[in-house]
Amino acid sequence: MRVLIVGSGGREHALAASIAASPHCLEVHAAPGNPGISMIAKCHPVVADDIEGLVALSRDLAVDLVVIGPEVPLVLGLADELRHIGIATFGPGAAAAKMEGSKAFTKQLLDAAGVDTAESYTVTDFAGAKLAIGALGGACVVKADGLAAGKGVIVCDDATEAERAAEELLGGSLGSAGSVLVIEERMEGPEVSVLALCDGEAAVPLPSARDYKRIGEGGTGPNTGGMGAISPAPGVSDEQAQQIVDTVHKPILMELTRRGIRFNGCLYAGLMLTETGPRVLEFNVRFGDPETQAVLPRLGEDLLPWLMACAKGQLEERPLKTYGGSAVAIVLASRGYPEASESGNPISGLADASIMRDTAIFQAGTAIAHGKVVTAGGRVLAVVARGADADGARAAAYAAADKVSFNGMQRRDDIGSDSQG
Ligand code: AMP
Ligand code: GLY
Predict the structure, then answer these.
(1) What superfamily in CATH does domain 327-401 come from?
(2) Fewer CB near the terminus (10 Å): N or C of the chain?
(3) What does the alpha-carbon distance between residue 243 and residue 373 come to, in Å, rounded to a whole number?
(4) What is the location of CATH 3.30.1490.20 in the chain?
């Protein structure tokens, strides 16, 4: 098979590594890819939001499968365009990608499918926001409806804070993403990401994961794209992940089908494990980043046939074989991240880290300058290691991460522990 992977992050590097290792894979291409991906795939300079360019590239390369990593091309309808010209595609069409593009749409879908989630109100003006905040008792979560790169969710302790958040978002602090708000009940509990491979009807759980979203240890400081991940999520058994897929993912697929929408791809449910059971926080319509970097190294079988089965609507509902134990992914980020980020700093120790046993390095924000790998973005790379259990994986991942350094490097030292995400 010839496969094209769309995207340029650590998630896409992990996908490329799994796909390149498949005996069914003849060629791996990436658009645009990154220096890490270029070691295992042919990279093409077409960016992930250039839908026309990606369609033309897929056609020119005569690929058998396109795997779409990031949400932006999904929201822009890349999967629809590719399927339209007969190319098997892993990734949902624009109608389903709305789950990631609009929180109000998702809440409505959750209610229609009867899936447990926080009580919420969708509002478009400050008077409505005030009423919603009052009805929820003050402590609540104020969310911009649209895509806001992790900045659109404000968890508030009281009504004053919530009203201020609503006022700022409605006032345009995040542009049009905040012209509609979802204001919801504040829930408590540990979080888990349950990703499932889906073919429109069938769904098969991937190993569960937890990501660590805040920049600082103990879950402090601003939200980021994710500073690390562990799989499985501590305390979440494979049976529980299966139960979540049966009670969350499958009803959502059914509700989408009822609306004439087929979901062929990875449906990512972010859940809070509350006292009354798992409740949905959000959906993503793609693999998580950095969850994927911790999840894929745990698979004990070839991923590529599963991706193709999802694309073709032929997914077999049986559990994926996995290695026991755990995997931990530690993100190394640039100085200034998440507000800004430095670029161009040479990265040392990559070769030393990558020869360690059961360890992988997945690059994200890197570039080549004067023949050397340098930093080129906020999240630079993830160091991943497997171990017999969470402690073993964490120790191995930090031992490998300790070998890598660059000027201004930031990382959290509590990835994989029970500390707050
Ligand atoms: P979201 O983008 O909706 O997943 O929100 C980002 C983060 O905000 C989540 O990972 C949670 O930590 C937090 N969050 C979102 N919704 C709620 C909620 N209803 N109750 C408590 N925390 C929440
Ligand atoms: N790790 C969160 C995300 O992929 O959206």
Answers:
(1) Phosphoribosylglycinamide synthetase, C-terminal domain (3.90.600.10)
(2) N
(3) 43
(4) 125-179
The tens digit of pLDDT for each residue in 316-328 reads 999 999 998 999 9
Superfamily for domain range 191-312? ATP-grasp fold, B domain (3.30.470.20)
pTM to 2 decimals?
Answer: 0.95
Question: Residue 291 CA: which ligand 2 atom is closest?
Answer: 1
pLDDT per residue as tens digits for the range 229-260 = 999 999 899 999 999 999 999 999 999 999 99
Ligand 1 atom with least separation from CA of 120: 19
Under 8 Å CB-to-CB from 246, ≥6 apart: which residues? none
- Angle of helix 250-258 relative to helix 103-113, nearest 10 degrees, comes to 100
Ligand 1 atom 12: the closest Cα is on which residue?
Answer: 191
If you take atom 5 of ligand 2, which residue's CA is the nearest one?
288
Residue nearest to atom 4 of ligand 2 (CA): 288
Atom of ligand 1 nearest to the CA of 118: 19
**Strand, helix or coil for residue 126:** helix
> 3-state DSSP call for residue 274?
strand
What per-residue confidence (pLDDT) applies to 178? 87
